[in-house]
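Q: Could you write out the predicted structure for this multi-component system? I'm mainly interested in how the pieces pack against one another.
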Amino acid sequence: MKLDNIYKEEKKSAFAKLSEIIFTMASRPSGLIGLSILVFHIILAFVSPYIAPHDFKAIDPTLMLQAPSAEYWFGTDDLGRDVFTRTILGGRTALTITFFGSLIALLWGGLLGIFCGLVGGKIDDVVMRIVDAFLSIPWILAMLLIVSLLGTSTEVLIPALGFFYGKGIVRVARAATHDVIAKDFIVSARARGHSNFSIIWNEIIPNVRDAILVEGAMRWSWMLLGFSSLSFLGFGVSPPTPDWGLMISNARGLMSFAYWAVIAPIVGLSSLIIGINLTADAFAKALGIDRSTKAPV
Amino acid sequence: MLFLIIKRILLGFITLFIVSVITFVGTEVLPGDACTTYLERQAFGEQLEACYRRLGLNVPAYERYVSWALNAIQGDFGYSLSGEMPIKEVLGPRIKNSLVLASAAIFIGIPIALILGIITALWRDKLPDVAISTVTIFAMTIPEFISATLLILIIAIWLEWLPGIVIVPTDVSFLELLPNIILPVVAIAMIMTAHMARMVRSSVIQVMASEYVQMAILKGVPYWKMVFKHVLPNALLPAINVVALTIAWLLGGVVVTEVVFNYPGLGRLVIESISNRDLPTVQALAIILASIYVSINLLADLLTLMLNPRLKTLQIRK
């Protein structure tokens, strides 16, 4: 009974902490805008298959490049497909793939970074050299190579994106661990005879978690940018899946006649990326981490 | 000091060595080799043999790596598969074109970024800062292909001021290239400027809050004299590294921008060679782009070292 109470209290306090963070984020205008855009996009991604007015892959030559009208709110594209339907569906693939990609990036980047920070010495040097080397290969070249050799299925894209966007997190996690490792409470935990695992789990992770989470949130927006660039170049999701990058690249050739087909996905993608960015910024500020001096690596 | 410089240069070479191993192993481990991926269905019998012989794929991998690396150091990357000509000759004009694009963007971008960064920092949270910061957030978060597409739509199609798509041969002279590159340069410079302006801003704000600046204010040093003599030199120093990283990071963005504008530079070559499954060229590109990245970083490090007397006596990590 007593234990149960303690457990409930802890759970409540964690929830209170989260709502406090969200409240702090929303108290700035930029954070409020970012959060609302992000929430809007997430809700849209869940409900869009049910509210889409037309079939996203229905091709109708008689309806080619129609201007926006009451029936087709954002007009139609070069194959006569409804641009509104495709635009509201266009974020689903991108959001899903980049969300899971970011989770993978956070997981391996964070763990390897903490490990390097903890072990130090030769192993740390070697791993960081390799991470540096990977950082100096442009992401786009590496991604294009993987995708062109292994295909563009989700099972390839998620781990590939997760891997290439995680190497930056290694650095952040390592630096954060370095800051923590010399603190007195780690030394005393060692003196108490705690195992390495217990020290990592109970002492280090709670202290570096914020920095890693903020980095991960930022990676999410860059990964979205990278993923849509891949789609734009024709190396991302395959047609006829509605995807903003793909829609922009298809409609680009005809934009002197049908600008609506290119504007709609542009607004969708830009607003989502800006939303995630503002949210990540507000998140960093709410946690008291200044990331404005960091380079976009 | 000398020791530090030598150490940095050595570390750069080690990084490049690892990159070369990664790209070599990467293309080796991934299913299929250069010949089977290039020839696809015709990958059998005599054609395959000929291709293997031409690329020297019939000897063990480590031997190939050594000979490839030795040649690459001398600037010889072997033959491209699709063009049937030395990669060196394919790369030459492409590098020149990309260099023109990048250096134009940098020369336009850096002064504007400095001015914007200083203005936003000195008028922090006032109207100029809010206005400029909002614009920079937009400019740096929106993907390159979107800003480039919008530029073409507005300036080339609706206003008809400039050509939207670059239609020039690869080896065109600089003057002929000029009207064509304005839009691509603007597209690249916009994002770069936004990134750098943000960094200059936060750097200036940090220095403005430091004790010696407070002291200067209390002593009654004229405001602008203080800004130019005491704040800026100290604020711009840490910005150098960040600017270098931004430029290096833009290598990826340049690829996309070049494709949008159909610009015959290294970026489009990346896409072309990957679409053609031309692995020797991809390897060469990986090494070249990585060398650019490493040397920009090295340059920034050395510049910081030279401009900051405090670091001369200190052992710096990383």
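A: Regarding packing and overall arrangement: Residues 196-233 of chain A form the longest helix (38 residues).
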